[in-house]
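Is this the right way to post structure tokens for a design question? Let me know if I should format differently. Anyway, here goes:
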């Protein structure tokens, strides 16, 4: 019987498609790695590295090497136990290694005794990497022998597992080398900065684990090595290295019960932003969860109790709010538990209720002791919290005044906003443009139905060095807040945004880069859900134009110009470097930067919260030497600096 359901419109058994093996992954990669953009591409690296780190957490690995090979592939080497090579009882004729590489939900993390604690939850990690690679080579050292197996075209076995001889370089371990499939991903170039941030986190979270990184691509020649005897205490010191610590001492405590444990480290700085980063079994829980909730609650309780016992808060005074106490706090919360309940494969939030109880009890006990034993530090933190409370009340008053003015003045939109006619946020976009002249060109170049223009004057306030009450006195900040329409800081409600694309449009020069960084810092610090939701973009106006016949060709940057000359060696025109946005004709601005059919936009995402926090603090903080070193180190990876 043939399947003619498409012709007849019938819905029957023949309409049901069964995807076997790894076909499901290639059909719907986003279900397994989040996206086929750069986030998903790097997720492949995380899956392989997480497996090696799981070996470290189990006590069987103390050295991991991650290499970007000259051809752009990734190689991950560990000295763990090595994936088992003996036949698998449930799959006749297949080794355990082949099952792990080709079968979803297969692994040693489901109560079979392989791992007590691991980051892997669904057992799809390494098999998904295999499915989304054009080629993968697996090398195993185990029991004194070396083995190798090769896959291609999305996980198909090219050569079965075979013994290649005796182990020579190591007695045990696993090596995975993979080439991401260019037919699956939008691009297959890895960011060394992105990978380094993740690897450094792993080294911090696993005390004394050594992780080496090498970038062997032409023109890169970059090596780093991470190993921290202090673990998360070193992590907190690192987070505050680009800030000014309120005191030298870094707090630390740990606790455990049954099949779960927690360790927490903390230190305050003189800044105004909290930096709490939590991890469960080495996996970053960027959306928080029960472990964070337990710590936050205990922190508020402990400090209010201390402030009242020392009469810093009088009987008539209101309690300090959690946000007051956390101002300037850098903290790492790392928990390990046998059965983590993550939300989804990307593991953004932890849901175990038992860990909340452990963290809250341990934090109440140890924070109380720490405050009593460190009176100088405790006093400095409490006084800072009291100052933050005053600022919070002042900011609340300023917001209330702003709301009352808005109610009296009608819609409350800034006068310089050139709004679009559409009221549908999903199709509307706003361009934030520096300067009135560029704003005028953008106004003429836009599609008035769904494109709005907000000119801002000069460089906005550096919010890395200001509290909310000061921000609300800044006219450019107020204009941004009013135009976007969803509030600011803790009042921000992403469901109320008036545009689903907030696009930063600045010149492609040093001043333009500074303006972009100021705006990105503002969005990250005061409208973080806007960034989390993928609503923030950076326009990428081209640097050059040239003529090919009667047509004008625009080239994004120097590499694009070089590629054009390589493809067109006989091109005779002198290239024109485009002027600033304000000097562009409106039709030129429209064709290069604003027309949805022709423009190039960079979507801003936060793949690793701790790294984004660190970069903002370095680029916008007061430590000039740290900023200079960061820029010099990452100059070759400059296209990722805005993130």
């Amino acid at each position: 019987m043939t399947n003619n359901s498409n012709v007849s419109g019938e819905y029957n058994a023949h309409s049901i498609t069964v995807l076997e093996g790894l076909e499901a992954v290639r059909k719907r990669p986003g279900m397994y790695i989040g996206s086929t953009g750069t986030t998903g591409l790097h997720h492949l690296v995380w899956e392989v590295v997480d497996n090696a780190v799981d070996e470290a957490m189990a006590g069987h690995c103390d050295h991991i090497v991650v290499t970007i090979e000259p051809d752009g592939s990734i190689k991950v080497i560990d000295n763990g136990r090595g994936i088992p090579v003996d036949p698998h009882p449930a799959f006749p004729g297949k080794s355990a290694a082949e099952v792990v590489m080709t079968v979803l939900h297969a692994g040693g993390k489901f109560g079979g005794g392989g791992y007590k604690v691991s980051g892997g939850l669904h057992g799809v990690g390494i098999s998904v990497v295999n499915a989304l690679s054009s080629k993968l080579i697996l090398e195993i050292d185990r029991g004194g022998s070396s083995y190798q197996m090769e896959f291609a075209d999305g996980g198909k076995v090219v050569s079965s597992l075979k013994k290649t001889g005796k182990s020579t370089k190591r007695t045990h371990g696993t090596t995975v080398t993979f080439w991401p499939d260019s037919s699956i991903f939008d691009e297959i170039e890895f960011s060394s900065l992105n990978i380094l941030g993740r690897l450094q986190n792993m080294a911090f979270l696993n005390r004394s684990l050594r992780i080496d990184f090498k970038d062997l691509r032409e023109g890169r020649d970059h090596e780093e090595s991470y190993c921290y005897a202090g673990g998360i205490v070193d992590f907190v010191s690192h987070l505050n290295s680009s800030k000014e610590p309120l005191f030298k001492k870094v707090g630390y405590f740990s606790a455990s019960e049954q099949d779960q444990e927690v360790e927490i480290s903390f230190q305050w700085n003189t800044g105004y932003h909290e930096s709490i980063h939590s991890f469960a079994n080495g996996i970053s829980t960027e959306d928080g969860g029960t472990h964070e909730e337990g710590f936050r609650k205990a922190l508020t309780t402990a400090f209010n109790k201390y402030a009242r016992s020392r009469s810093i808060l009088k009987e008539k005074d209101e309690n300090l709010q959690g946000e007051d106490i956390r101002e300037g706090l850098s903290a790492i919360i790392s928990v390990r538990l046998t059965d983590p309940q993550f939300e989804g494969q990307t593991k953004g939030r932890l849901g175990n209720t038992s860990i909340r109880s452990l963290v809250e009890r341990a934090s109440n006990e140890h924070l109380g002791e720490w405050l009593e034993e460190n009176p100088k530090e405790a006093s400095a933190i409490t006084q800072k919290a009291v100052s933050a409370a005053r600022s919070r009340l002042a900011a609340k008053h300023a917001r209330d005044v702003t709301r009352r003015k808005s109610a009296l003045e009608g819609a409350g939109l800034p006068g310089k906003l050139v709004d679009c006619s559409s009221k549908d946020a999903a199709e509307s976009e706003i361009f934030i443009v520096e300067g009135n002249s560029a704003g005028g060109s953008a106004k003429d170049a836009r599609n008035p139905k769904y494109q709005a223009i907000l000119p801002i004057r000069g460089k906005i306030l550096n919010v890395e060095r200001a509290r909310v009450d000061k921000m609300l006195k800044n006219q450019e900040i107020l204009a941004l807040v009013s135009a976007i329409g969803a509030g600011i800081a803790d009042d921000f409600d992403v469901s109320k945004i008036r545009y689903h694309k907030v696009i930063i449009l600045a010149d492609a020069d040093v001043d333009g880069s500074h303006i972009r960084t100021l705006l990105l810092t503002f969005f990250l610090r005061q409208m973080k859900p806007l960034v989390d939701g993928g609503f923030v973009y950076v326009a990428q106006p081209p640097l050059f134009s040239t003529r090919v016949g009667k047509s004008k060709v625009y080239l994004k940057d120097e590499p694009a110009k070089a590629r054009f000359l390589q493809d067109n060696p006989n091109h005779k025109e002198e290239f024109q470097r485009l002027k600033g946005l304000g000097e562009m004709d409106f039709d030129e601005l429209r064709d290069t930067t604003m027309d949805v059919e022709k423009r190039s936009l960079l979507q801003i995402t936060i793949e690793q919260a701790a790294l984004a926090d660190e970069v903002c603090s370095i680029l916008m903080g007061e430590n000039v030497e740290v900023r200079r070193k960061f820029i010099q180190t990452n100059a070759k990876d400059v296209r990722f600096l805005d993130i």
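Format looks fine. Someone answered above. Worth noting: The CA atoms of residues 144 and 171 lie 6 Å apart. The longest strand covers residues 156-166.
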